[in-house]
Specification:
The complex is a heterodimer of chains A (120) and B (106). Chain A has 120 residues and is mainly beta. Helix content of chain A is 0%, strand content 48%. By secondary structure, chain B is mainly β. In chain B, strands 2, 4, 5, 6, 9, 10 and 11 form a seven-stranded mixed β-sheet that branches. A four-stranded antiparallel β-sheet of chain B has the order 1-3-8-7, with no helix packed on it. The chains are: A mainly beta (120), B mainly beta (106).
């Protein structure tokens, strides 16, 4: 069974940093790209970042470029999102999602999400 | 960047109704378009991928069509479990983008 479990969310002040983690199990982790998607309270889904199979290349939505870094550890089946210079508008539930593997599917499994609140 | 626009943003329907949701891309995305269903407090669930392929386990009353810049999600005979918010999602080589969502209400 595919499982994605996020952790690391919490309350931080503007300008601070936070690192999210996602533990993956039940599938061949290194055969899938992975993504982070967020959802601000009462709002729609926003794709945040994607990382390729080996972890050498990440892509980001413009609003987080230069502040967020996506990474992965294929030896530990783990995905990470390092967030710095956090702003109030980064407040959201952050989902880890399994992404492209060449089968035509994208974002076919999601974690339960972890809440990040940026407030003073 | 490619922008995805859904319509309508919300709709009211009854059990048994046929429902159609439209998603338009700001430029051609070929068939790299998916549809997700989200219920309150839950993670999204993939329904359709590659514009018209039904994800395993998803009821056949859900279907997707389109290519290029215009896509539709159709639910034939709406069921009580289908009241939710639906999002289209473009997936490209270096980015992804969601539509703003369509809330299907009673």
């Amino acid at each position: 069974e595919v499982q994605l479990v996020e952790s690391g969310g919490g309350l931080v002040q503007p300008g601070e940093s936070l690192r999210l983690s996602c533990a993956a199990s039940g599938f061949n982790f290194r055969s899938h790209q992975m993504s982070w998607v967020r959802q601000a309270p009462g709002k729609g889904l926003e794709w945040v970042a994607n990382i390729n199979y080996g972890g050498s290349e990440g892509s980001y939505v413009d609003s987080v470029k230069g502040r967020f870094t996506i990474s992965r550890d294929n030896t530990k089946n783990s995905l990470f999102l390092q967030m710095s210079s956090l702003r109030a508008e980064d407040t959201a539930v952050y989902y880890c999602a399994r992404d492209w593997d060449g089968s035509g599917r994208s974002l076919d499994y999601w974690g339960q999400g972890t809440l990040v609140t940026v407030s003073s | 960047d490619i922008q995805m626009t859904q319509s309508p943003s919300s709709l009211s329907a009854s059990v048994g109704d046929r429902v159609t949701i439209t998603c338009r891309a700001s430029q051609s995305v070929s068939s790299w378009l998916a549809w997700h269903q989200q219920k309150p407090g839950k993670a999204p669930k993939l329904l359709i991928y590659k514009a018209s392929s039904l994800e395993s386990g998803v009821p056949s009353r859900f279907s997707g069509s389109g290519s290029g810049t215009e896509f539709t999600l159709t639910i034939t005979s709406l069921q009580p479990d289908d009241f939710a918010t639906y999002y289209c999602h473009h997936y490209g080589t270096f980015s992804r983008a969601f539509g703003q969502g369509t809330k299907v209400e009673i």
